[in-house]
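Worked example

This section walks through a single chain of length 294. The input is the sequence exactly as stored; nothing has been trimmed or padded.
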Amino acid sequence: MPVVDASWEQWLSSNVSRGCSMDSMIDAMVQAGFAGEAARTAVGKAFGLTLAVTGAASHGAAATEAVLAKPAPSAYQYDAMPVASGNVIHAYDRDVRVLMRCEKPQVIVFGDVLSAEECNEMIERSRHRLKRSTTVNPATGKEDVIRNRTSEGIWYQRGEDDFIARMDRRISSLMNWPVENGEGLQILHYGTTGEYKPHFDYFPPDQPGSSVHTAQGGQRVATLVIYLNDVPDGGETIFPEAGVSVAARQGGAVYFRYMNGQRQLDPLTLHGGAPVLGGDKWIMTKWMRERAYG
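Given that input, the structure is written out below as tokens.
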């Protein structure tokens, strides 16, 4: 069983200063192998709270527990998006149509980000290189295969050839964020019934494993999901907390931003890929970081 050593003390102090909730910190420590009582005690100490005897007695034995008052969460402050205004945005080498803008959460739906020919080329060059997709383990930061994500994927190195470099520059221009801050393009394929249950794209700061991924380039700030084919039925990108659903149409895309200038993270950007009910789904994803990545 782990102990609260110097690294855990630093983790506790850091997450208190970031405004993380007690419950989330306790859950993260339990997931990392701490006993529930030990986790509550450590978190209570980090918040400067004292453990109190509740006075509850069972069969003559006194029961004690940590009385932890929840701090009021700081509300996410929406500031100006970096994406340009207007109904048409010139993105490096292509004019992209704006189909919809949402303020809370900050979501934009685009049309014509890629041509049909470019979409088909991305699919064909990726088809025979697919591997089962993974997700980040919150306690360790390692990549695990899980049931909640039933897709296959491939990563491209940023700018690895002329075609990929052109896609990187166009997407960077559209998102209005430095190309060097972008992760490599990821291609994902979902067969019929394939889905990705609701999740966050940012690395939750209250999970120990996140530090593995933010050490280089910092936190993720925004995502662009590009649809490489039409999906006959299902496969929408859903934002369940906001009541927003975006259908998959070839060449179109959905942008969403989840970190503001104060480094707050927007919980309304919880999102997922709805089950594919007919045909299959191909998407290309770009994640942007705070700083230069890679």
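What to look for: The chain has two domains: 6-65, 88-289.
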